[in-house]
Write a structure and sequence with these properties.
The protein is of the alpha+beta class. The chain has three helices and six strands. It is about 25% helix and about 35% strand. The strands form two sheets. The chain has a three-stranded antiparallel β-sheet with strand order 1-2-3, with no helix packed on it. A three-stranded mixed β-sheet has the order 4-5-6, with helices on one face. The longest helix is centred in the middle third of the chain and has 23 residues. The termini are far apart.
């Protein structure tokens, strides 16, 4: 069984700058743009948005697992860095995304439950699970 995915709308503003909106979501969306020489980087480009989607999904998946396991989380901070290279045909492609997650847990957190979540949380991430077949995603987790 499959579910329809949430819609995203992208509308040209000018040059290579686009307005991205999310029907049904509060807020006005955001602008995306290409770096020079095509655009002015007046917003993230697609590679950064892809990396942000992976980072957000992994962070939410880790938080979900820890919360379900009753492990108290004080903070999660995640960085993602896409690596873009030319493929054999000379086209630019996102080859991989390095993700670094820093988790701050409350004192006296259950180590066994935390370790279990660190083993399985990536399985909950809809985005990473989908893109892994096309690009590599390297994940590291730093738990304080």
């Amino acid at each position: 069984m499959s579910e329809p995915g949430p819609r995203v709308k992208v509308k040209l503003i000018r040059g290579y700058q686009f307005k991205v909106t999310f029907p049904g979501v509060k807020g006005e969306g955001f602008a995306m743009d290409e770096p020079e020489p095509l655009g002015g980087l007046d917003g993230p480009n697609a590679s950064r948005v892809l990396a942000a989607s992976i980072a957000n999904c992994l962070s939410a998946s880790l938080l979900f697992c820890l919360s379900k396991s009753r492990v108290a989380v004080e903070d999660i901070e995640t960085e993602a860095e896409p690596t873009v290279e030319r493929n054999q045909e000379g086209y630019w492609r996102v080859k991989k995304v390095d993700v670094s997650i820093k988790v701050k847990l409350r004192e006296h957190s259950d180590k066994e439950r935390t370790d279990r979540c660190l083993q399985i949380f990536e399985n909950y991430c809809v985005v990473t699970g989908a893109v892994r077949k096309g690009i590599g995603v390297d994940v590291s987790v730093n738990v304080d």
